[in-house]
Amino acid sequence: MEILQLDGLEPQLFNLIGPLAMNPKVLRANNNYPFKTTERFQWYIAVEDSDVTGFVPVEQKSGGYVINNYYVHNDDQEVLAGLLEAVKPKNNLYAIVQTKHEAIFSNCGFQTEHRWTNYIKMIYNTNKNE
Which residues are bridge partners to 124 per DSSP? Predict the structure, then answer.
């Protein structure tokens, strides 16, 4: 598996993500929320045998960085963990996580900050010894 890192408006991003972002099955896996990007995003894209197997967009906001509306084919834990490892840990890195992926994010150093029905707000623990 190769992990690509692309800026939010790079043409290659649209070529790779476009077919998935407009696929009804992928949208259903994302609870029917659309994917979006701007110049404030960095995208981490897992590619295997020239197929995109998942992606994690990271948006830079005034209060830090946010992972939101990510996708992994068949909820592949190995792909998601690989994508999360590729995201360079930054201070104030938050993630809005689907409840079914809580354990994977936790194993990658994220801690729960708030729970909703279908999502969990998690923050990256820069001190993994806590």
Answer: 110
Considering the domain boundaries, does residue 93 fall inside one? Answer: yes
The encoded tokens of residue 61 equal: 């906001």
Distance CA 4, CA 33 (A): 23
Q: Residues, the chain, total?
A: 130
Number of folded domains that form the chain: 1
Separation between Cα atoms, residue 110 and residue 37, nearest integer Å? 23
Residue 130 lies in a domain: no
Six token digits for residue 22: 């407009």
6 within domain boundaries: yes
Most distant CA pair in the chain: distance in Å? 41
Which tens digits make up the pLDDT trace of 2-43? 999 999 999 999 999 999 999 999 999 888 889 999 999 999
pLDDT digits (tens, 9 = 90+) for 99-116: 999 999 999 999 999 999
